[in-house]
Amino acid sequence: MSAWRAAGLNYTRYSQISAQLLRQALKKEFKADAEKRGATHIKFTRWADGKPIRESVAEQTK
């Protein structure tokens, strides 16, 4: 069994934690660019009767 699974994590959460730790460990000159790549953008569209009824955009930064 994988260590991340034994710890009760799914792969997505494990990779998020790994990426966050890597960004924290970088030197200052590389850290700013890496933090930009850490932002997550999500788009939600509600559908009814086969047509989009409302679109909302949420931005999550970690």
UniProtKB/TrEMBL annotation:
Q: Name one GO cellular component term.
A: mitochondrial inner membrane
Which InterPro entries did the record assign? ATP_synth_F1_esu_mt, ATP_synth_F1_esu_sf_mt
Q: Name one GO biological process term.
A: proton motive force-driven mitochondrial ATP synthesis
One Pfam assignment: ATP-synt_Eps
The record ties this protein, via CDD domains, to: F1-ATPase_epsilon (cd12153)
Instruction: Please report which protein family the annotation says this sequence is part of.
Output: Belongs to the eukaryotic ATPase epsilon family.
Please identify the protein, giving its name as recorded: Protein stunted-like isoform X1
